[in-house]
Design goal:
Blueprint lengths: L2 H15 L6 H10 L4 H25 L5 H20 L4 H24 L15 H16 L4 H10 L5 H25 L7 H20 L2 H4 L1 H22 L1
Length: 247
């Protein structure tokens, strides 16, 4: 196990947990750059998501920033699709092509939110629509197929729709990532393709548990979220474009 990879996983978990994310997209990007087997990548990324966002869910709930009913309404719709997505048979070439598209799209969404989004004001009427259930189902399917929890897609969509405050959107996304990651793992397990290599995944899981717990307790002011999101977007964009070129 590479010490450098453990340090990077720790850093990703620390930064992502502070915003309610699990870090699955960056875990996959890093493992792809380390040429990890694609089945091992999916299982490890989802497991890391679960252990990180459990702390995030607790943190946002205690802070009063988790509208649990709406979070569950959005999340539970997506779980069967995450299960189905992880159950779909994907060849290695198809997986990396899909992952490259997913990571590149996620990076572009993050860049839009960072540089092009105007002043953000929540719209109370946005919470009364059902369109987000359809979006959640689509993201759940993609999450299961690629091993990403889906929060990195859901967050920009909810912000574009002015669904709620930034902190409450982060809380909703933490629940969304948790249930979709579990759904994805169950789908992999049901077809006997979940891979857990203790020698490989053990140190990474320990790294993200520690990083996630620290991140969940840090304030956004300390971490300067725009800088964090910008660096994350560049990492994801680099990995996504590299996969598309090599694919």
């Amino acid at each position: 196990m590479s010490v450098e990879l453990c340090i990077l996983f720790f850093t990703v978990a620390l930064l992502y947990a502070s915003a309610g994310f699990g870090g699955g997209s960056s875990y996959l990007a890093l493992m792809a750059l380390w040429s990890v087997d694609f089945q091992l990548m999916k299982s490890t990324a989802l497991l890391c998501n679960v252990v990180v966002v459990i702390g995030g869910v607790y943190h946002f709930y205690r802070a009063g920033q988790l509208p649990l009913k709406r979070a569950l309404q959005l999340s539970l719709i997506s779980v069967p699709f995450a299960f189905a997505g992880s159950y779909l048979p994907l060849k290695q070439h198809t997986f990396f092509l899909l992952l490259g598209i997913a990571l590149t799209s996620a990076a572009l969404l993050m860049c839009y939110k960072l540089f092009l989004e105007k002043e953000y004001v929540p719209d109370p009427n946005a919470q009364k629509t059902y369109k987000y259930g359809v979006v959640g189902a689509a993201i759940g399917l993609l999450s299961g197929m690629t091993g990403i929890g889906g929060g990195i897609y859901l967050s920009p969509v909810l912000r574009l729709g002015r669904y709620d405050t930034a902190k409450k959107i982060a809380g909703i996304c933490s629940v969304f990532i948790l249930v979709n990651s579990i759904g994805g793992l169950l789908g992999q397990a049901s077809k006997g393709e979940i891979i857990f290599d203790l020698h490989f995944a053990g140190p990474l899981l320990l790294s993200v548990i520690v990083g996630g717990q620290i991140g969940a307790r840090l304030s956004a002011a300390v971490l300067k979220p725009r800088i964090v999101e910008g660096a994350t977007a560049l990492l994801i964009l680099y990995a996504g474009v590299r996969m598309l070129i090599q694919g």
